[in-house]
Design goal:
The chain has a single domain, classed as 3-Layer(aba) Sandwich (Rossmann fold). Helix content is 31%, strand content 23%. The protein has six helices and eight strands. It has helices spanning 37-40, 43-49, 72-83, 95-106, 149-158, 178-191, and strands at residues 5-9, 12-19, 23-28, 52-57, 89-93, 112-116, 136-140, 163-166.
Length: 192
Amino acid sequence: MIDDKYIDVNSKKVHYIESGNGRPFLLFHGARFNARTWEETGTIDALSNSGFRAISVDFPGFGKSDRSDQELSDFIESFIEAMKIEKPIVLGASMGGEAVLGFSVKYDNYSGIVLVGAVGVAAYEKDLNRISDKPFLLIWGKNDMVSSPENYQTLMKYNKNAKFLNIGYQHACYLDDNKTFNNEIINFAKSL
């Protein structure tokens, strides 16, 4: 089990776990999950074994992190600043995907974005031209009942270079086929 770590972000205690050295790869969970989810799927080990510094974070009010009123998209930037990280690759699933998308249209401090079954995409449509040339990987389960195909189709309309993959079936598709999922995010990260 990877050791618990904590950092102060805007006077709130934020819990995260990390493994590996190299280029930072941040992992953000969905509403039913927490930082340990990416340990259970083998994603942290797969990334750290491939030369990345995998950092999995509990959003404020989830897992072992304090509650906060800060918007999740702004929290991601605050966490990156607190950790003194430069240009990480940032992954978010479902609710975390919406937060990462919000972060990506407001801030530039990233080298690549992975959205997994992101929800709430339409809310950002007026700002999506800001991500038109950025490296994006979009992963959806084939039968995602939570995040409709419209979400990734909207993203691909504004970002013609975004790479799209169907992996697994359900909304939390990384639980269906974690091996393919981990391999694909590593391939994407190495291509940056």
